[in-house]
Write a structure and sequence with these properties.
By secondary structure, the chain is mostly beta strands. Helix content is 0%, strand content 74%. The protein contains no helices and 16 strands. The chain has a 16-stranded parallel β-sheet that branches. The radius of gyration is 20 Å and the shape is elongated.
């Protein structure tokens, strides 16, 4: 892509879609159609009216993409909303990420808030903050700290699942209430839960920590729970 031109917007402006090498917005910019590039950096705000396929997508501010996003490296220091599906092989979020469809990738490191309209599927998920997944949250390893608000996922599936309550970020204003999780089903090999309400928790080794309300625990290895949590029924399978 050495002979493909770069695009820079300083102040306020717009650019057509197409194939570029590097794109940068310092201020406020609109991309009018699908875009493909090696790198897209935003210092301010942007709107992309089509789909995006790129290697690096770095946001310092806020951005919205009307279509789908396919990116190797996604870094957000602010907010990003995506109207379609997102393929982000490595995602680092410090702020909020809102996706109308699903998120798929290898690693996701999130401090803040993520919302998906579909499944969230990655190999490794580290999350500090809150989440709303309107589908299945599926990862080989899930390490989630509930820092504020009500997190939700219809189903959580993983090898190792750790859900813990945490104190809120002192610099963020997402809410001051204690973080909790609601899920219909949680299933994995090794599961540790705090501040979680779930109809069914199923796995090999399960430890229910403080502040939980669980309808049914099914386990094949070891099971224990704190006395201040409620487990209506447990069954070794």
């Amino acid at each position: 892509m050495a002979d493909i031109r770069n695009v820079s917007i300083h102040g306020s402006g717009s650019a057509s879609g197409g194939v570029y090498k590097k794109m940068a917005i310092r201020g406020e910019g609109t991309i009018l159609d699908d875009v493909e590039c090696e790198q897209f950096k935003i210092f301010g705000s942007s709107d992309v009216m089509g789909n995006m396929k790129l290697n690096k997508f770095h946001i310092f501010g806020e951005s919205s993409v009307k279509g789908q996003v396919d990116v190797e490296e996604l870094k957000i220091f602010g907010t990003l909303s995506i109207g379609g599906d997102a393929q982000a092989h490595r995602a680092k979020v410090r702020g909020t990420l809102d996706i109308d469809c699903g998120l798929h990738g290898e690693r996701a490191d999130i401090k803040g808030m993520i919302t998906t309209g579909g499944d969230l599927e990655v190999e490794s998920l580290s999350l500090q903050g809150a989440f709303e997944v309107n589908g299945v949250m599926n990862a080989g390893s899930i390490d989630a700290g509930l820092r504020f608000g009500m997190s939700k996922a219809d189903e959580i599936v993983g090898g190792k699942i750790k859900i813990k309550k945490k104190s809120n970020f002192p610099i963020f204003s997402f809410g001051k209430e204690e973080g909790r999780l609601e899920s219909r089903m949680i299933e994995g090999d090794d599961i540790y839960l705090e501040n979680t309400s779930a109809e069914v928790v199923r796995g090999k080794n399960i430890k229910i920590g403080t502040g939980c309300k669980i309808g049914l625990v099914e386990y094949s290895g070891h099971f224990e729970h704190k006395s201040n949590s409620v487990v209506k029924e447990n069954k070794k399978i």
